[in-house]
């Protein structure tokens, strides 16, 4: 069960990156902790078996909900790993059946916060005496709480406002145990059902592992933040920014960052207090993201309204770099062509681009694919409306965008798969970000054409 983790380039990134204790030893290297983690892992497997067994008993007693609902309910009962897995399913119509993607839209990652005393123990394990010497205040009530971490506001001794992202206890060990279990299960299924080799269940689990372990590794998130800041500096972009990381106060389980003060990108009324030209602010956000596709080692893969802020000084702030994507230039060119064709309802060009993006073991009939895509025209018009009056109000934008975008993505993937195409997850991630931006354009700059406006540098 250890093969997947040992071979993973992400395995062990948290090790050796914690602050030394007062005697100079590296926290986390204690053999007692390793033994304890092993015992906890065995307990976790037993706990998983009990939850799954309990659900089976409910089924036998007649409590028979549809299988997607039952799986989501089971995942939520199992906690952090499976909640993240549910969110992965919800955001991956290129991998999973539509009924499961639909159901897992309801898998929310909002959890009851743990008491501050529990989180303080993690802080002291990671930062040692710095908790007392470097901070004048740490808010006991969290700003947010999710399955993996809680976020607390704080103030440094120099007066700077920061946020502390603190990993919940035991999360990493639970993730590794659960992912090993899922990987072995997937390999067993592939052995028993060789026809499933094309779907590559074990490969999907490896992709899930990569995504989830990156999100759980705050050293990697700190690296992402600093790499994006370096990209902004290298390209001379002074109109966008990311939170500055305090490295000496950050570890694999604690991330200390500059605290941003501002409003979400779609809060038009308040944006006008911080920016004389909200349309130009939106263009800045879009051009920054577009240029990162070719000039940064990754792109921000979750640019919903809550992760793009307009700061009090008018700059655009990108936050939350736990989820990022990577793409090669040829695929990006094909995705750009696909989006242009989608906006213009050019189904022939859409089919050609999809054939360049997807992986297939046989030839693709471009004309037949275009005909099938044309059947989605009415659905496309609801997601990419041409009339600004058809747009939802700002308060419902994020919720409706998620639902509409995921449904359209599932339809597009279904049509592609009917023609033998199998798409990488980056395809869905990229298209989703494009459609987010298209919605923002219709709200903040309804006269602007996303693909023709010369101020937008989509291919630079």
UniProtKB/TrEMBL annotation:
It comes from the Bacteria. GO terms for molecular function: kinase activity. SUPFAM superfamilies: Protein kinase-like (PK-like). Keywords: Kinase, Transferase. Residues 1-31 are annotated as: Disordered. InterPro entries: ABC1_dom, Kinase-like_dom_sf, Mito_struct-func_regulator. Coiled coil: none annotated. Residues 109-351 form the ABC1 atypical kinase-like domain. PANTHER family: ABC1 FAMILY PROTEIN, OS07G0227800 PROTEIN. This is AarF/ABC1/UbiB kinase family protein. It comes from Vreelandella halophila. The lineage of its organism: Bacteria, Pseudomonadati, Pseudomonadota, Gammaproteobacteria, Oceanospirillales.
């Amino acid at each position: 069960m250890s093969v997947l983790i040992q071979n993973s380039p992400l395995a062990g990134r948290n090790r050796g990156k914690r602050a030394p204790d007062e005697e100079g030893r590296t926290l986390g290297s204690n053999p007692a902790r390793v033994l304890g983690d092993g015992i906890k892992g065995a307990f976790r497997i037993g706990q998983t078996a009990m939850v799954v067994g309990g659900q089976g008993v409910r089924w036998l007693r007649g409590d028979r909900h549809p299988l997607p609902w039952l799986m989501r309910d089971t995942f939520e009962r199992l906690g952090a790993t499976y909640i993240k897995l549910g969110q992965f399913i919800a955001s991956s119509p290129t991998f999973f059946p539509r009924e499961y993607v639909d159901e897992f839209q309801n898998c929310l990652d909002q959890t009851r916060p743990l008491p501050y005393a529990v989180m303080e123990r993690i802080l002291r394990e990671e930062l040692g005496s710095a908790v007392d010497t470097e901070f004048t205040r740490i808010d006991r009530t969290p700003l947010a709480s999710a399955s993996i971490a809680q976020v607390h506001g704080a103030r440094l001794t120099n007066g700077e406002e920061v946020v502390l992202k603190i990993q919940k206890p035991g999360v990493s060990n639970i993730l590794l145990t659960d992912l090993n279990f899922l990987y072995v299960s997937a390999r067993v299924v592939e052995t028993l059902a060789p026809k499933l080799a094309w779907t590559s269940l074990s490969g999907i689990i490896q992709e899930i592992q990569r995504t989830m372990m990156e999100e759980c590794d705050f050293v990697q998130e700190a690296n992402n933040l600093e790499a994006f800041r370096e990209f902004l500096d290298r390209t001379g972009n002074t109109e966008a920014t990311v939170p500055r990381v305090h490295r000496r106060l950050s570890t694999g389980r604690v991330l200390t960052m500059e605290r941003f003060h501002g409003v979400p990108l779609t809060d038009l009324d308040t944006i006008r207090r911080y920016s004389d030209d909200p349309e130009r602010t939106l263009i800045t956000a879009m051009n920054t993201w577009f240029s990162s596709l070719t000039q940064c080692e990754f792109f921000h893969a979750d640019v919903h309204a809550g992760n793009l802020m307009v700061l009090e000084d008018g700059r655009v702030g990108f936050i939350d770099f736990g989820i990022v994507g990577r793409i090669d230039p040829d695929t990006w060119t094909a995705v750009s062509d696909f989006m242009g064709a989608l906006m213009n309802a050019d189904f022939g060009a859409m089919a050609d681009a999809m054939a360049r993006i997807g992986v297939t073991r046989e030839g693709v009939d471009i004309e037949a694919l275009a005909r099938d895509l044309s059947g989605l025209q009415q659905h496309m018009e609801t997601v990419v409306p041409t009339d600004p009056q058809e747009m939802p109000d700002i308060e419902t934008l994020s919720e409706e965008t998620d639902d509409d975008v995921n449904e359209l993505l599932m339809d597009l993937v279904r049509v592609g798969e009917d023609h033998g195409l199998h798409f990488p997850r980056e395809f869905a991630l990229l298209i989703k970000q494009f459609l987010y931006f298209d919605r923002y354009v219709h709200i903040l700059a309804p006269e602007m054409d996303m693909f023709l406006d010369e101020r937008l540098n989509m291919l630079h």
